[in-house]
Specification:
The protein has 130 residues and is mostly helical. It contains 5 helices and no strands. α2 crosses α3, α3 crosses α5 and α4 crosses α5. It is elongated and about 80 Å long.
Amino acid sequence: MNRILKRALLPGLMAASLAGVTLVPVKPAAADDQVLRDAAIGAGTCVVTGAIRGRGTVLRNAAKCGAAGAAVNGANGLRRNPKKRDLGQDAAVGAGASAATRAVLGGREDTAGDLLDGAAAGAVINILTK
């Protein structure tokens, strides 16, 4: 009798637990509906800072700080109060995302410039979106 119960109940119990785990509601992504706005602000900022510094192409600069803008948006979505933005955090997230994106894109080694561009993008996003 014990074997019959195990064979009859165990597969159904495993299937029910698997379905319960996969159907658990998941927290939505941290980025909000303004992610494209922040990416555009970041891209525009880097195009300007890259032109001022005379480094990189327009497309690479726009790509690296577009990613920085999206990262800043995502970082602010993780806060308890997304309306209260922190300038230092936004600049740090922008700098890190810019340097990481530039590493993926390849090209000349200008890590300090990438950090500067990303920090500028994060700061501009913070100032414009308060």
